[in-house]
């Protein structure tokens, strides 16, 4: 399966130091889990978090969920050992925090190779500093093992000294730069977290905006937000029905030698069919996940 084409509607962070959270990951209906060794873990608990995460990965039982491990940076006392331990594990991806240059990714790819990481393991990057925004294109093209970006909007807001507003206008240039780079290099890209767990309406609005901007899904901090993210980032029944309709209509038109067709008064060209096929494929993958 191409790295960018699997459901990633909801991706939940869980601190590696929280054994109960890791256990719950086996049953929560999130498309992906991020086992965190970095900012959600206090310095005194770094080793505990690493050991618990590796034990959970060894034990397995996470089904179709994509498992990323967010390691500490190579510039910290824990980063190298985190990367080595994760490279030897069954994780789907190593998620690197605060990436700012292609060199970091190349260093980590070399460690993965030296440690015999399995062939499907990918590198993902937290995009969360101003320099990362400016270097997004170089980072996106850094290495064939790169699988995707995760927006780190909390660190970004801190470094930009900007506000967390409802419309996220202060963040929009950054989101756009990372989106452009990700899509140019066929990477997946996940939106940042919504920090206010008491603000359901704001959470829903951020999901709608994230999907409209093109994000594959949203990173989450609490299980109670999984269902809303799954709904927001999934194709609706109406969208799937429309997609199937225009695929069929365009196929009929093509058989008659026509390159375009009008469906309910709307012009349908091949490019619309490509988008429709992608949407139907995602809906099918979501349905398959539900029965896995
Ligand atoms: C925010 C929390 C600390 C709240 O935890 P808690 O008080 O335990 O919440 P609840 O009592 O409401 O929990 C109910 C049950 O759900 C489980 N739970 C809670 N959170 C998680 C989770 N993330 N994963 C799995 N399970 C979870 C509890 O164990 C309860 O279960 P049960 O025992 O059956 O009742 C907590 O939600 C939390 O720690 N969240 C994650 C925070 C985190 O990871 N932050 C770092 C990532 S955000 C970030 O860094 C983004 C980026 O870098 C940036 O810069 O933007
Ligand atoms: Mg961060």
Question: How would you briefly describe this protein structure?
Answer:
The chain has 292 residues and is an alpha/beta fold. It contains 12 helices and 10 strands.
Explain how this protein is built.
- Keywords: Magnesium, Metal-binding.
- InterPro entries: Aldolase/citrate-lyase_domain, Citrate_lyase_beta/mcl1/mcl2, Pyrv/PenolPyrv_kinase-like_dom, Pyrv_kinase-like_dom_sf.
- Mg(2+) binds at residues 128, 155.
- Residues 9-223 form the HpcH/HpaI aldolase/citrate lyase domain.
- The protein is α/β, with parallel strands linked by helices.
- The chain has 2 domains: 10-233, TIM Barrel, CATH 3.20.20.60; 237-291.
- 47% of the residues lie in helices and 16% in strands.
- It is built from 12 helices and 10 strands.
- The strands form 2 sheets. An 8-stranded parallel β-barrel has the order 1-2-3-4-5-6-7-8, surrounded by 5 helices. It has a two-stranded antiparallel ribbon with strand order 9-10.
- Helix 1 links the parallel strand 1 and strand 2.
- Helix 11 crosses helix 12 (270-291).
- The longest helix is centred in the C-terminal third of the chain and has 22 residues, at 270-291.
- The radius of gyration is 20 Å and the shape is globular.
Q: Can you tag this structure with a few keywords?
A:
292 residues, binds magnesium ion, two-stranded antiparallel sheet, alpha/beta, 47% helix, TIM Barrel, binds ligand LIB3CWND, single chain, 12 helices, 2 domains, Aldolase/citrate-lyase_domain, globular
